[in-house]
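2 proteins. here.
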Amino acid sequence: MNYQLIALDLDGTLLNSRKEIPEEAVRAVRTVCAAGKTVVFDTGRAVPELAEQIAALPEVRYAVFASGAGLYDIRERKAFGLRAIPDTDIKRIMSLARAKDVMPQLVLPDADVIQVSHMEQLEHFNMGVYRPMYEKAMTLVPDIWAFAGSCREPVLKLNLYHADAAERIRTREQLETPELELVYSEISSLECSAEGVSKGSGLEQLCRLLDIPASSCIAVGDADNDIPMLRAAGLGVAMGNAPAHVKTAADRIVSDLDHGGCAEAILLLLNAGLDS
């Protein structure tokens, strides 16, 4: 198969356990782009959270962000193809979150919003590893519930970071409805998106824009929210650090995030090892 595009998850995939892009992955991206292939980010992150990756890999023009709720043209600095959560669902999610030990995070087209007091509690909500990035990327508000109630921008994704993974299960059970996509991520996070939104639907939307068949794409990931894109692509690749059920959803498994797995996957664009 002559694969034309590769979609890369960031955390746990392109980024190693230190939240850095390994040098071998940088070289692999440059090699495949020089060969005329296309590399895109397909991530749960918001646009402000992509600054370091954009600077490190100028060869990458497009990103699927907010777990498929938006597309971003890096060269034009333009978000488009947005799919927002309906206001009624935002109110319901935030009302439930208010009664829990939860850190809500609102992902907007050009901003990433959390409550200022929650910034001091990132470790409590199992997000301490992201502190350096959060300190650079987050828009801080004094009251996230008041902000959500008055926000006039589309909310593309609402993350609920729990202190306890068991409570996350209960939150999902309480929010379950056909109008929402609910997906686990990180240690104890619940991602809330509009109906039909996923990293897979975002990849398919970008493929239509670029006139590239999804069957000609490779997707690489490690987590629950990556499963839709692994299934949407012609070749789904799971990282070696992925849990068993994510590996089951993939066509191929590579090494883990700290042992060259992403570079190995990127070079599949050049048909390296496809027959093994």
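next one coming up
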Amino acid sequence: MEKRTGDNTQAERTDGQKEDIEMKSARWVFIVVVGVVVALGLAGAAYAFHSGGVAECTGCHSMHSPKEGGSFLLIGGDQSSTCLSCHMHAGDTGPSSYHIATADADMPVGVPPKQRTPGGDFGWLRKSYTFTVRGTTSTEDGATHGHNIVAADFGYVADPTNTTAPGGTFSSAQLGCQSCHDPHSGNRRLSDGTYARGATLGQATAPIIGSGSYDTSATPTAGQAVGVYRLLRGLGDNTQGVTFNGVAIAVVPSTYNQTEATNQVRTAYGATGTNTWGNWCATCHPSMHSSGNYVHPVDQSLNSAVTNNYNAYVKSGDFTGTSATSFTSLVPFMENTGDISTLKTHAKNNNTYLNGPSSSDKVACLSCHRAHATGWPEMLRWNMEGEFMVYNSLYPGTDTTPTVPQFARGRLGAETQAAYYDRPVTQFASYQRVLCNKCHAKD
């Protein structure tokens, strides 16, 4: 809410005050229009706020009343706080549109974060757990659950343990939403499927007509372009001392933030040439790809054995699956294509495309990790701190019987289930082992 500065009549106001009032009025008109669009259910399609490139300036900046102590005339105290001013909303009771973090007040002790986006919920960073195993008490710090963005307005601070990105030199103190996403993005996909940089470098190229992230995104015609996936940096974009080469290719359903109790959300991750997710993540984590530190393959084609395991694996002890229904969003993969029209037909939220991989598809960092945060250490998609994800037909919790502390890790059973995006426990074996087995079938 804007703060009143006086009771001047219109005639008594200075030109500067009139201009400020006009700008604020325009901004409120913009906010009302966005609210109407959201109410009509059109957000996330062609009417998205960012629309593939630089958004409404006054949505993030205020010329005359920016946040005190901040910079860049932002409405928040820092870049990530400005992002969360829209991408977090107090009062959410479940997954909600483009929200990627749950407010503290909406997840008291024992209540898990609400959002179920493909990237995860930053709210898990606020959840620490203490438990005792064989007489030794341990604490799983919430900071271990994901990328620790700095958003001071909302209590998010730098990683207290890793001063730089693991496997790299990027300073944790400067990590924010803008480190991976570019709110002023000039990166674009052209009508011939190639990628280019434009306005941010003063280069002449086709204008962006809308988002390029969704299965419903427009297909640009000659002389047009759409934005890159999620406004992610790339194409030689240099920021905060690192350079992003290539692009990260993906398509997501236009409705993507939903419980997966019944239907999964499939983000169709693509790859072509050096445009892979592994190369993109390596911008900040380069030593993860060195022979001394990097063991598990990434950006490599799946061999026939792994492909067969993935497609046959249903759950521990059950290898009756088929390639037509084997996909799980808990273990996604990169398709060996950069063709957006193909990926659009695979990005689903209703279980209508569950095809598993072929041997030419690839393993990616995102096969095991989410990009934002999860309910598990190292932002993994499943719990790797014990051999069982499900024990005695129950999600492990301090409230389940028998209680096994090393599997519950201080959580309630409902929190464990939430970390698996609300899947019924019956989707897994009564003694379900970790999902490394989806590819390696050792259980």
